[in-house]
Amino acid sequence: MTGEPRGGSRRRGGGRAGRIAERQAAPAADARPVRPGMPGGRYAPLRESDMQQIYDTALRLLEDVGMGTPIPEFTEVVTEAGGWLDADGRLHYPRALIEEGIRRSTKEWIWHGFDDGKSIHVGGNRVHYGTAGAAVLIHDFETNRFRPSTIADVYDCARLVDSFEHVHFFGRTCVARDLEDPRDLDLSTAYAVLTGTSKPSGSAWFDPRHVRESVEMFDLALGGPGEFAKRPFVVGYNTFVVPPMRFAEEANQCMVAQVETGMPVLLLSAGQAGATAPAALAGALVQALAECLAGLCNVNMLRPGHPCIMGMWPFVSDLRTGAMSGGSGEEAVINAAAAQLLNWMGLPSGVPASMTDSKVPDAQSGHEKGLTVGLAANAGANLIFESAGMLASLLACSPEQLVIDNDMMGAVNRTVRGIEVDEATLSAGVIAEVIAGPGHFLGSAQTLSLMQTEYVYPIIGDRDSPENWTDAGGLSALQVAHRRARQVLSEHYPDHVSPEVDARIREAFPISLPSRFT
Prior knowledge:
Number of helices: 19
Number of strands: 20
Shape: globular
Distance between the termini: 30 Å
Structural class: alpha/beta
Mean pLDDT: 94
Radius of gyration: 24 Å
Strand content: 5-15%
């Protein structure tokens, strides 16, 4: 999508239009100005001594205080390895046990796409952007009101993300509130994620039996039993703790099923500073790290090396009201710090950003999203969740916001890339040639060669003059995004699951999403 004309823009005539069109031709994927997995890490809100103190305090809490309400499967493996269960039912983790769990863990792994050409390498300092969430509302552009989200919305959001250049993975963005039966909800959501995109994807489950059935569905789509475990393209988004420092029983049972079926796990701790986590940002980081390390230890005692993402998601409260403040400066810095801390430990990092408190795509959503995503990316977060589409502190999702945020992610990724300095880019010879010749750089060979490899161009963002913008209809970014979303949803139907396979899936499982093949 690099270089597409902005919807509603007026095309200029003559030879200049031809030259512009030629320059807009997208370069090969490996020559584009930004790509999945650009290396981050230039922004560092914590000193190394800060990170060491946070780490030591988290391990001390796990040993001295422990985790509440553990399930038997994890209690057994932890106690066999040296942990203990106290009289209050809290599971304690000695420091050596946690560090053994870290040692056993996989530090880098491949999150496959159904299309393996879209797979991403998780770990190191590689930065990727994607979605997640459990929004219960959809912002309706036509009415500027909210309505309950549906299974069709899950599928449509997946299709939109599948068409984007700068959003690298898709996780369920909203909950299908039109489905009341838990099995129908879990399996239909898994189906919508499967068929809506061939990118790496993720979802959540309410019941371990539904995890196993979904993996059977994925096996069927890939060609037979056991195929998903060979090339897992779906991550289980698992909110496995109830902060502070207590396991969520049903989510942990789902985690056991995810481990046993070969599904990678997002170990998601989502304490809210000032409510379910300390108001002190350092304390919120300590608690989130302790909770995620307990989950990582559990998984690696059960199956060493099972792929996990350390989902430190410390949320922030507006302490005047207690409400979540997803777009605040505090949220931006604490999630960047979480990414820096996890990368320092050598563990795959996943943090949330772009969680604006605004209810609509507007100036507030723009500055909050840009701030939070920009800091997380430049801190080197491997996976940035919630990065597109979300509104109202994660309560709502918007197709138009998804489109706008794809533009934003391209710009943010350009800041992650930074500036390459070498003999060629220093440009002394080019400067001398221009001074001796035309006096400007517009037509120089260097300018033409770098147009598509050094610069990122927006699809929705407007760069026309006021006159040309007015002549083209005077559309706002939101209006252009609405037009773009409607166009994509009317045309883009991923076809990586064939009609024959789709029919077999529908015969085997209750799928409430209507088939596009009938």
